[in-house]
């Protein structure tokens, strides 16, 4: 999953990026509204964390322009605790959720998980495909109840496929959603990690749809 953080406070921006990266997300960052608007308009993200008080272009204006352009990416607004009017205006402008500063990082991570989960049509943190179970909160994967050890890249790939279970996902889409903009995107990287995952999961769990991509199958 790929997340954009738009926050002008350098320390907070870094803290958010570090926490999201540790939680398994690919993270891009921006420090002003114009840069954030450009990235959100041109790159595919699974969620955006957007501060309201940004230089060059405020967060609400960024959000409104995205929504007018038809962008449906889930957006979590960062607001000042005493500005309840910002929260109301943010929701009316198209935000999916908000959190007030100062906040606990675990709350932000939980809200991002919920946004990604709901956008993919899942009500629970646990996603099931046949005998494979993924706990999106802990990152734990089990097959027939037995824990499966995955690398961070393998988990990121499996998580995206599980969130979009039953859908055919192209290699291009996987690359765009699993790696940040600075990652050296080798065309064979996805195939390598799919091959590794297949050795750890039930046979035919990940199917190749010739010429189109991959899909997770299951109940």
TrEMBL record:
Keywords: DNA-binding, Phosphoprotein, Transcription, Transcription regulation, Two-component regulatory system. GO terms for cellular component: cytosol; protein-DNA complex. Residues 2-116 form the Response regulatory domain. The modification 4-aspartylphosphate is found at residue 51. GO terms for biological process: regulation of DNA-templated transcription. PROSITE patterns: OMPR_PHOB, RESPONSE_REGULATORY. InterPro entries: CheY-like_superfamily, OmpR/PhoB-type_DNA-bd, Sig_transdc_resp-reg_C-effctor, Sig_transdc_resp-reg_receiver, WalR-like, WH-like_DNA-bd_sf. Residues 124-218 bind DNA. It holds the Pfam family Response_reg. GO terms for molecular function: phosphorelay response regulator activity; transcription cis-regulatory region binding. Residues 124-218 form the OmpR/PhoB-type domain. This is Transcriptional regulatory protein QseB. It comes from Devosia equisanguinis.
